[in-house]
Amino acid sequence: MSHVSCLRDARRIVVKVGSALVTNEGRGLDPDAIALWGGQIGRLRALGKEVVMVSSGAIAEGIKRLGWPRRPREIHELQAAAAVGQMGLAQVYESCFRAHGLQTAQVLLTHEDLADRRRYLNARSTLLTLLRLGVVPIINENDTVVTDEIKVGDNDTLGALVTNLIDADALVILTDQSGLYTADPRHDPAAVLLPRVVAGDPVLEGMAGGAGSSIGRGGMITKVLAARRAAHGGASTVVCSGREPDVLVRLAGGESVGTEFVAQTPRLAARKQWLADHLQLRGALRVDAGAGRALREDGKSLLPIGVVEVVGEFERGEVVAILDAEGRELARGLVNYSASDARRIARRPSTEIESLLGFVEEPELIHRDNLVLR
Ligand code: GLU
Questions:
Q1: Which DSSP letter does residue 193 get?
Q2: Quick one: which of 77, 135, 287, 328 is 20 to 30 A from 216 by CA?
Q3: 45-86 pLDDT tens trace
Q4: Could you tell me whether strands 307-311 and 281-287 are parallel, antiparallel, or unpaired per DSSP bridges?
Q5: Closest approach atom of ligand 1 to CA 82
Q6: Ligand 1 centroid distance, CA of 175 (Å)
Q7: Are the C-beta atoms of 312 and 339 separated by less than 8 Å?
Q8: Ligand 1 atom with least separation from CA of 154
Q9: Domains defined along the chain, listed by start
């Protein structure tokens, strides 16, 4: 029996496309394919969905533009190829998406942008701002500056990290295969497509086998692992063929296409679990009764005006406790300002942040999305 795709109810979606699709198996950027995805994303946006793209293809395109007969091994040559190819990638997305009325933005991320808490918040805020402005961010790894030890390495993993970074509801990995099969369909004629599996089930890793083509970095295994990673943040993943006509629109209509890796923990619960369990408290913010009520009863963010005391030393992006007048922990969350900045803006309206600090990160001291009640 077929199921209803997770994309139907997803509000925020990350769509990852692989090098083989973007560059037509390494023959060169494929504007027709990219325009088709642009058209589909335009329709998703009309349904009220927010879409972020993660696109590979820089190295494959760079190799082609430089006229090299094969993929080099030398890291600096790969980085040079990425730098050349990324120009083409940005250009073709910009023009093909603009034809569908979509504005795009190039965002190149490194592993450190996602691992360091302060930079994590910055990357998150920028991406969420772009979405708010109605722009489609086109993300790739900043291959030109990363070294072997610190690179994310493949864009399936990057797609999952971005999914968790922006709390997306679903990740779609468009590839040149139809989905996950019980065995490698290129070698085993008895292999059948699995329409729906549980993300993180260890059995899947055996089915996925080794790396795929020589064009991109990932094979089915990196997709299975990416789905597991996205599921930790509560997002389900669909792996399907990017050549299927209207595949994104059909998924958004609820049609089952490819393989869905179902996340078993709901997104909010997963995020709360992460905040509650995995981070050390660096300090605390003591709040007045009004702010306490707004947090607890009205589901509001914590604004500087409600903070009466800042305890301890912490940096932007660290986890702090929110205490009531009696010192009981009401909540904890990721703080948008360092302790010293928080001391300067405590008790003041958010409209004064700029004059007090000379800059504004966010109007909230802790945004609701980054906060869990205790
Ligand atoms: N970032 C690489 C590129 O744009 C792709 C990595 C991958 O294939 O997953 O060429």
A1: B
A2: 135
A3: 999 999 999 999 999 999 999 999 999 999 899 999 999 999
A4: antiparallel
A5: 10
A6: 13
A7: yes
A8: 9
A9: 12-273 (3.40.1160.10), 281-373 (2.30.130.10)
